[in-house]
Design brief:
7-stranded mixed beta sheet, single chain, 6 helices, 9 strands
Amino acid sequence: MTLAAHTRTVRAAYDALAPTFGGWNASIEGDPWERFVSELEKRVDDGARVLDLGCGDGTKSRRLAERFEVVGVDVSPEQLRLARTAAPAVTFVEADFSELDFPADTFDAVTAFYSIMHVPRDRDLELFGKVLRWLKPGGLLLVSMSTIGGPDRTENWLGVEMFFSGFDAETNRRLAQEAGFELLVDDVIRMTEPEGETAFLWVLGQRPG
């Protein structure tokens, strides 16, 4: 697997964070991800096929797998090692999800929890378009994205060098719509990480049809 330089940075960072990242995540106050998964469950039939992009240690994939047939994708071998133990019912794929492709109309829903920010922002529209094609008509995208954003950059984060990129909330909304999604939910929600308060744009988008 040949990886771009920014992807190698992300893989190395999450490999290094594997022993501690689950605990860091668990200490976040006000993270709304479970509420949004519940919202997804109301709208998607049991047994539906769901793709989880940037699945990390499998915590969220495991929750999704309680109701759905799940494929989880991550670039970090160490995170996937944890994920395969945490969520044995999930099919995991080691890959840069921005480079993947699937046949059209494969999934009923696609999730991306805090992972789009590790993709160069000039590729976001292309990625949304690919996801739209992977979804069945009426399929759903659940994604959390940056609210302030910034150009491609590598910075120290939780003691590792990490690649980030992203747009402001309004641009993210526009890109999802330009790709063809109807926005059912687009809320900016604040939460408190151990290092301080932050906010993300949560979008639940639907492929028309």
